[in-house]
Amino acid sequence: MASMKINVTVAAVAVIFLSAAFHPCDASTNVKYTPTAPPPPPRAYPSPSPTPAVRPVIIVEGIIYCKSCKLKGYNRNMDASPLPNATASLVCYGNKKSNYRELNVTSTPADKNGYFIVMMYEVAMFHVDRCMLYLRSSPTSLCAAPFVPAHAKLSLPLEKEPRKAPLPKGALGAYHSKSALMYAPGNAGKCPPY
Question: Coiled-coil stretches, from where to where (predicted)?
Answer without folding.
Answer: none
